[in-house]
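Ticket #4471: structure output looks truncated?

Reporter: J.K.
Steps to reproduce: submitted the chain below (330 residues) through the standard prediction queue, then opened the result file.
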Amino acid sequence: MRAEVPPPSGSYFPHSHLLGIWDLDPIEIKYLLDRADAYADQNRSSQKKTDKLAGRTQINLFFENSTRTLMSFEMAGKRLGLDTISMSTSNSSIKKGETLLDTAATLNAMHPDALVVRHADSGAVRLLSREMNCPVLNAGDGRAEHPTQALLDALTIRRRKGHIHGLTVAISGDVTHSRVARSNIYLLNAMGAKVRLVAPPTLIPTDAESLGVEVYHTMEDGLKGADVVIMLRLQQERMQGAFLPSLREYYKYWGLTREKLQVASDDVLVMHPGPMNRGVEIASDIADDLEKSAIREQVEMGVAVRMACLDILISGREDPEAHLYKGEGT
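Returned output as attached by the reporter:
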């Protein structure tokens, strides 16, 4: 497992890139969440935009289709004053046979100040970061990690519950194919939450026991007493073989309904990283219940978290003293 020793008081945020939650310790996670918290408040004010990073350039390079993550990064960059450029690989030189490293060399020659990358292969973003002279932010790579999603989930939980430490969080659905689940497990464990995985055996990763979680194969047992329930999308595009008998049967046993949720805590918080399949993973009356559901708030927190990550990585690179943190605990 990760190192438990926090950095000494007075440390700088030490990372050049944001490649995964695994790379971060609890103090660094808290630092990112605190900065994002301030941006969340700013985004709710009439003065949403700042020129803090004016003149810098942010390139969004997405090898996989995305709507909310791409828009969220674009909006985050624009609210910080960055010039943002989004590239789709469907009409790029990648389709003509250019390698990932050649693409990195080409982009590097243009001197961007941040590169946001989403890729279908685990480890591709980390490989690319070794070739770039600017901060690289992982917007999701294969089944590996989706760090900004985990950070926005954590920020949503912290703002709604007041804390993360000590909460019981059930992550339910297609865990096997989910980079969101893996990043959330790392983060929630680091911040002192108790994590459960709830899914049929075919949708639980083979290394689950080594992740520091409890595994449940019924919703009734897995959701019992849970403070937070994070539902996951069924990623059928990544499934090769028979993982499920049918979507109808999946919903019957694994879809989140008000009846199944009755065994959770009275003030349970329901989340979903989206896009969600209503009537497959979650019932509409739960998804739209603003008292229990934080799904819309997750989208809102996504912009704030990405603003914080861009700010800390870009301005911290230019002036490390701008990001001195005190290491006062989680």
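Triage note (M.O.): checked the attachment and the full token line is present. The two ends are 18 Å apart (CA to CA).
Status: closed, working as intended.
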